[in-house]
Amino acid sequence: MLSCPRACAILCALLPAWGLPVFQVQAAGPAGLNSSATAINATGAVVGSYQQPDGTYRGFLWRDGQVTTLGLPAGAAQAWAAAISGAGQAGGYTDSQTGSQGQIWDNFGSPLAMVGAYIMGLNDIGDAAGMAIASDGSGYAFVTRNGVVNGLGQPGGGDWSSANAVNGAGAAAGTAMNASGSFNAFSASADGGILLLRALGGANSYATAINSKGSVAGHAQMVSGALNAAVWSGASALGLGTLGGINSYAYAINAAGQVAGYSDLAGDGGTAAFLLDDGILYNINGLIGSNSGWQLLAAYGMNESGQIVGRGIYDGKEQAFLLTPNAPPRANAAAADSAVPEPMSILLVGVPLLAYFALRQRRRFWR
């Protein structure tokens, strides 16, 4: 056993390394407005959404410090950006009096085309993943390949499904309702083969991301009813744990197996963005330096270089952020579980889910 003086000397020698930030953090959206970044490509271009003073939402493209507001097609009142291609095209959806519509924007922010009701994912070559609404009001998962729309049907056996991500090979990941009314995560190979992904002992599972190797990330319900961030390789889920709170949610996974998302903190601590790296779950607030002025609430996107985007609090407002690593996280990095306000915006995976419930209510009303 180490003597106290020797143990203290070792600890003091390690403290300077612990205190060094491993990420540089910067704003990546419009200044002074509530904003959230949802996706980032290999070049560091970022997309997200922000709230205007009148309460409506617009999508944005951020590149090299410059913000471009995504244009509204005719008749649209609001827009949200959820995905970005390697060429800088943005994918998302718009809202108008006639309902929601999937949208693609070019890398100058001009509307190009509409596919389905929601576009939730894009890969590097511009293939899309999302949800289309049929004439009977049901939601159907789809992916596009070279501009051709391929429906994935109802993988869970219910009347709602959504594809939320697509990788470069055309494999997709998403969520579908099953016959009992619960939700199943699923993966779909490029040739359309479906694999349902199990939960962690509970009834529900949700897939939000897929990497180039076909590994899927999302969140899965445990026996207790809590949701745990999870990774699937095959049908079985591996829970990632939390940062001390009840629930955690994963939204991004890269080829190195790094996973990003957010977790509840203990007690009334709110939420914090996390990074899973080399099997260790980090509160990213402990990896940016103690004097950054940021509180990072949630991470939603990550590229192969380990850059991460999401939503935080800066100067009293919700602000989209970009993290750029300057060193890999260390096992001894301190996790700063400081109090963080509760999130104000809807979870990305909640958008098509909310659309599903709205559709169900509309169908009941008109029967």
Characterise this structure.
With 367 residues, the protein is mainly beta. It has one domain: 7 Propeller (Methylamine Dehydrogenase, Chain H), CATH 2.130.10.150. The protein contains two helices and 28 strands. A four-stranded antiparallel beta sheet has the order 1-28-27-26, with no helix packed on it. Strands 2-3-4-5 form a four-stranded antiparallel beta sheet, with no helix packed on it. Strands 6-7-8-9 form a four-stranded antiparallel beta sheet, with no helix packed on it. The radius of gyration is 20 Å and the shape is globular.
SSE diagram, text form:
Layout: H1 4-19, E1 23-27, E2 35-40, E3 46-51, E4 57-63, E5 66-69, E6 76-84, E7 90-96, E8 99-105, E9 111-113, E10 118-122, E11 128-133, E12 139-145, E13 148-151, E14 157-166, E15 172-178, E16 183-188, E17 194-197, E18 201-210, E19 216-222, E20 227-232, E21 237-239, E22 244-253, E23 259-265, E24 271-277, E25 280-283, E26 294-302, E27 308-314, E28 317-325, H2 350-366
Antiparallel strand pairs: 1-28, 2-3, 3-4, 4-5, 6-7, 7-8, 8-9, 10-11, 11-12, 12-13, 14-15, 15-16, 16-17, 18-19, 19-20, 20-21, 22-23, 23-24, 24-25, 26-27, 27-28
Identify the overall geometry: globular
Give the DSSP E fraction (strand runs of 2 or more residues): over 45%
Relative helix content: under 10%
Q: Which H/E pattern describes the elements?
A: HEEEEEEEEEEEEEEEEEEEEEEEEEEEEH
Largest sheet report = 4 strands, antiparallel
CATH superfamily, by name, is: Peptidase/esterase 'gauge' domain
Structural class: mainly beta
Q: What is the CATH class designation?
A: Mainly Beta
End-to-end separation in angstroms reads 75 Å
What is the architecture at the second tier of CATH?
7 Propeller
- What is the fold named in CATH at topology level? Methylamine Dehydrogenase, Chain H
Give the number of DSSP strands. 28
Instruction: Please list the strands of the largest sheet in the order they lie side by side.
Output: 1-28-27-26
